[in-house]
Each structure stands twice: as structure tokens, then as C-alpha cells.
Design brief:
about 425 residues; alpha+beta; 7-stranded antiparallel sheet; 5-stranded antiparallel sheet; globular
């Protein structure tokens, strides 16, 4: 075929095909193997996939099953009225910590998972479900055995100038003697897919803390964003959005709306606006704590980096049944997890049930586009080809449900204690 079709036309055709099909085409001949394995083709295929209407990635934890082990459920969803399930992604990994992995982020077809929800574990995985390959990152430089107790935050993103994917790790060591709590500035290290090693970032002068068990992050405008704070309850909080630039590998700050600067850090979470590039938003909870909060307020920075462009979109209430706000839909509706583990889609004056239920605070919502990344670096994983149900069976297992709720309560109480010594 390549003898009769111009190369540019051939590439234009191939970049429109699914990743699974391209893997098979690599076996046609050596020239196709070379073409489909090249970094230039991988980038071209990703650009074509990114130009298509975004698909939503949903992760939840199944509470039902015939065996003691339950499982994480990953699915690709259409952003239509019914939130239609397009494809189930079968997760082949098993956590050593609690019941499910923390999803650090999803970028360019890669899903970054961290096994850190309980205890000091160091497993961070980059997973490309489209081509069934994964990469487990090496042991980080800063670990409990060498440094003692610490808390940390992770971020995952992409440097478009170098076509490199990176994981950043911000580690707060525990103080000793007269120094109480977590020490600032924290230690920072970055893993780059191109090098395969963790690199320590020297000279970081971050003067802010993060909320340990609730750290949220958003990748936008080539940087990973977190909400961070200084001060305390007695002296007053000063909140900002802390940004790590994936290209320059330096930190910068984005100011929050005046009404959020002195709010409790426990009540703030940052996310991207999935269908608008380089836009971030803040969800402010109404007194988030060990039990469900009354509601939430949505803020969006319409022009990135311009403090005056912060705008309050709306305030949502579910009769005191809000657990976690997951993110936006293209319509502007917000997907919210209720305290009972069910999902609803909210907009001013309207609440729609989504017929989806899972483990307490196990949900993640992001965007997804197929890619060939990890074709060379990753290792093959074996996954079951059998499909799973589009809807989680809600019967649940009472012991697992209580376990998840207890773990959630412990997280809330720990964070509240840390912020209010």
C-alpha cells in the first residue's frame, strides 16, 4: 500500500485509526513498524486524537462481587445527556494500601496512579490502557526509611516543548524539637519519562502547605495546580493556587478571589475546566468535614493568570448530602458525589441522577484521548477482554462499605486536626 500512496497521505490516514489497530499494523512490514514506532508519528496521532470531541474518564470502586476482592472500575463516557458508557477499561493493578489507587491525573492517554492512600508506599504507575502497557516508576529519592515521617503531594503533566511527561513530588518532612508540624519549604523531586529517573529540584522556596489527604490538582497551561496555604486558624489563613511549571520546573503563584484567600484550606479544591483549555476552577465546600457538607460554590478563572477574571458561577446544594465535587461537563453542569456514593449532575435549579454508585470518595473524573505513548518504555499488561456492566450493582457488601466510610472519616479528621492544632 505504501508503494502507491504518498507518505503524507498514508500518515494522515493512519493517525486517524485507533491505537489497537495501529499495534496490529506494526506487523505488516519493517517500514510500517519503523513509521508507527517513531516519536513523530506518536505525536501526530496524539494531535489528531486531541482534536476530536473530548471523552470523559470515570473511575469508581465496585462494592459488589462474589469474591472478597472487589475492583476499580474505569470507563470512558460520552458527555451526552445520559453520560453513556463507551468503553470499559480493565485495570490490571492491585493496590497494597487500601481498596483503590489514587488517580493523580490523566494526560495524553496516560493515567497516573499512586498507591498511597494508606501508609508509606512508593508505587506510582503510568498506564496506557489503549495499548495495554504500563510503567512503574522507580523508588523516589525521599522515602520514610531515610527521612522519617512526611506528607506529600503528586502532580502529573506534560511539557509540550520537549514532548515529555513528568511526575512532580512535593514532600513535607516532619519537624523536630521546637519545630512542630510539617516543615516548609518542602523537598521537591521530578520524574521525567525521557530520563527514567527522579531528579531533585534545588532552590525551591515554597512557603506554603497543602492539605495532605485532600490534595487536589489540575493540569492546565503547562503547569500542575494545587491549592496551598500559609498561616493557621489562630493567625488567619492565606490561600493561593501554587503552580509547578512542567517546562521550567519552577513554582509560581496564582492569586485566588478575595473571598477565598482567608477561607479554610480544608474547604478548597482545584480542578481544570475540561472543555476549556488553560482554565482552572475552584470548588469551595460549605464546611467540609468528617460528615457530608451542605453545599459548594463554583469559581472559574475565565482568563488564566488574571486575578480580576475570577467569577463565581453558582452555588449548589444537595440538602446537606455533598461528599465530593468531581468536575465539569461541557454543558457547565457539575458532577457531584453524594454521601451515599451515588453521582448526580448539577446546575442552578436542576439536579439529575446519573445511575452510578461506588465506594466512598473513590471517584475520579477527567478527560481521555487515545495515544501510543509508552509503546517503547512500557511493559505489556494482561487484561480480561470480557466486558463489564455499564452500571454498578448497588447491593454492596456491608463490611466493605463500612471500611471505606471509616477510612474516609479518618482522612477528614486527620486533615481537620492538622489545620487546627
Amino acid at each position: 500500500m505504501s508503494d502507491y500512496v504518498p507518505r503524507e497521505t498514508l500518515i494522515n490516514i493512519l493517525t486517524r485509526l485507533p491505537a489497537k489497530t495501529l499495534l496490529r499494523f506494526r506487523c505488516i512490514c519493517k517500514s510500517w513498524l519503523s513509521l508507527l514506532s517513531s516519536p513523530d508519528f506518536t505525536s501526530a496521532h496524539l494531535r489528531t486524537a486531541a482534536a476530536k470531541p473530548p471523552v470523559l474518564l470515570l473511575r469508581g470502586y465496585s462494592l459488589t462481587g462474589l469474591t472478597p476482592r472487589y475492583k476499580e472500575l474505569y470507563s470512558l463516557r460520552s458527555d451526552d445527556a445520559d453520560f453513556t458508557s463507551l468503553l470499559d477499561l480493565h485495570c490490571p493493578f492491585k493496590t497494597r494500601a487500601v481498596n483503590f489507587f489514587r488517580v493523580v491525573g490523566s494526560c495524553n492517554g496516560l493515567i497516573c496512579l499512586s498507591d498511597d492512600l494508606l501508609g508509606y508506599t512508593y508505587t506510582v504507575i503510568l498506564w496506557n490502557p489503549a495499548i495495554r502497557r504500563n510503567l512503574t516508576l522507580p523508588m523516589p529519592n525521599i522515602c520514610f526509611e531515610d527521612y522519617g515521617p512526611y506528607m506529600f503531594s503528586l502532580g502529573f503533566g506534560f511539557d509540550p516543548k520537549t514532548n515529555d511527561h513528568k511526575v512532580v513530588r512535593i514532600v513535607y518532612l516532619e519537624g523536630s524539637g521546637r519545630v512542630k508540624g510539617w516543615v516548609v519549604p518542602p523537598k521537591v523531586e521530578v520524574y521525567a519519562l525521557s530520563t527514567g529517573v527522579w531528579k531533585t529540584i534545588k532552590g525551591s522556596k515554597i512557603g506554603y502547605h497543602m492539605v495532605e489527604v485532600f490534595w487536589s490538582r489540575a493540569f492546565a497551561n503547562c503547569g500542575v495546580h494545587w491549592t496551598a496555604y500559609s498561616g493557621g486558624k489562630s493567625t488567619g489563613y492565606c490561600n493561593v493556587v501554587l503552580v509547578f511549571d512542567m517546562g521550567s520546573e519552577v513554582f509560581r503563584e496564582v492569586k485566588l478571589p478575595e473571598k477565598l484567600v482567608g477561607a479554610s484550606p480544608l474547604d478548597l479544591a482545584v480542578t481544570g475546566f475540561f472543555f476549556l483549555k488553560d482554565t482552572i476552577s475552584i470548588f469551595q465546600y460549605d464546611k467540609r468535614g468528617p460528615y457530608c457538607c451542605k453545599g459548594f460554590t463554583v469559581w472559574v478563572m475565565k482568563e488564566y493568570g488574571v486575578e480580576e477574571s475570577w467569577s463565581r458561577l453558582f452555588t449548589g446544594s444537595l440538602n446537606g448530602d455533598v461528599s465530593t465535587v468531581l468536575g465539569f461537563r461541557k454543558s457547565g453542569e457539575v458532577v457531584v458525589e453524594k454521601w451515599d456514593g451515588t453521582l448526580v449532575s448539577c446546575q442552578p435549579g436542576k439536579i439529575k441522577k446519573m445511575r452510578i454508585r461506588g465506594g466512598k470518595e473513590s471517584f475520579y473524573l477527567g478527560t481521555y484521548a487515545e495515544s501510543l505513548i509508552l509503546l517503547d518504555e512500557g511493559k505489556c499488561v494482561q487484561m480480561d477482554d470480557n466486558g463489564s456492566s455499564d452500571e454498578v450493582d448497588y447491593a454492596g457488601n456491608a463490611f466493605v462499605v463500612r471500611s471505606l466510610e471509616k477510612n474516609s472519616l479518618r482522612h477528614h479528621l486527620f486533615a481537620a486536626t492538622a489545620l487546627n492544632p
